[in-house]
Amino acid sequence: MTLPRKASGALACGAAGLLLALGAAAPAQAAGYRYWSYWEADAGKWSYAHQGPATARPADGAAVGFRFALSEDSADAAKPTAAPDFAALCGGVERSAGTKRIAVVVDFGTAQDAPAGETPPKDEPTTGCARVAENATAADALAAVAKPLRYDSSAMLCGIAGYPRQGCGEAVADSGASPASTAPKAAPRAAEPSDGGPSAGLLVGGGAVLTLGAAAVWKSRRRA
Fold first, then answer.
1. Chain centroid to CA 90: how far?
2. Which of 21, 113, 170, 184 has most Cβ atoms within 10 angstroms of its Cβ?
3. Helix pair angle (5-12, 15-25), 10° resolution
4. pLDDT truncated to tens, each residue of the chain (224 aa)?
5. Class of residue 59 by CB neighbours under 10 A (exposed 0-12, middle 13-18, buried 19+)
6. What pLDDT sits at residue 76?
7. If 0-12 CB within 10 Å is exposed, 13-18 middle and 19+ buried, where does residue 160 land?
8. Sequential DSSP letters for the chain
9. Which residues contact 201 (CB under 8 A, 6 or more apart)?
């Protein structure tokens, strides 16, 4: 997927500016978005990623995490509950020529954050060690550990290991507001479908927020 120059520039501005665009695009009284967020290990702790897993290329020895939850923005996003412990997850996996090892944590979240009619498939996170090519992205590492993955037509990550079964980053209305004015609406999406799969177009994590915010910026400039 090739975005117009202005949209590409918006992605480079970082999560802070794009979150403002995301907020402007959200329906009034929205409680937040239900989506898969993307995390990276930093000094033994999870740090909200500032780029999507399709562009992030972790080095050998890195740990990446994915968490499904309802979040208003990156400041209140729920972290994966399993620690980013590379030694524990990949200690027994040898690195071979032309490859790297990435520890992967997938946290399905809580029943409270699950879409209507669904429940998290597991109470505990799925973890694994992905041995992938040296130039592989975090999205490639995820695919090696937690299939099947589900993407929408714009290559936004919607489901991991079949969860959730449907939906993709919808805005969730604030339960304290009137139903007529706050019915959930579909979150903004990337404007063009990807022709290269997740590694070419997936923008999730710092990721999911960046995708939604960039789409809002691109669409507003296109209309102008």
1. 23
2. 21
3. 120
4. 333 444 444 444 444 343 333 444 444 455 689 999 999 999 999 999 988 898 999 999 999 999 999 988 778 899 999 999 999 999 999 999 999 999 999 999 999 999 999 999 999 999 999 999 999 999 999 999 999 999 988 888 999 999 999 999 888 876 544 333 333 333 333 222 333 333 333 333 444 434 444 444 334 444 44
5. exposed
6. 82
7. buried
8. ----HHHHHHHHT-HHHHHHHHHHHSPTTEEEEEEEEEEEEETTEEEE-SS-TTT--PPTTEEEEEEEEEESSGGGPPPPSS---HHHHHTT----TTEEEEEEEEE---GGGSPTT---S-SSPEEEEEEEETT--HHHHHHHHS--EEE-TT--EEEETTBSSS--S-EEE-TTS-HHHH---PPP--SS--SS-HHHH---BHHHHHHHHHHHHHHHHHH-
9. 1, 54, 154, 155, 190, 193, 194, 195
Give the tokens for residue 84: 């980013």
Tokens found for residue 4: 């117009």
164: preceding bond cis by omega (within 30 degrees): yes
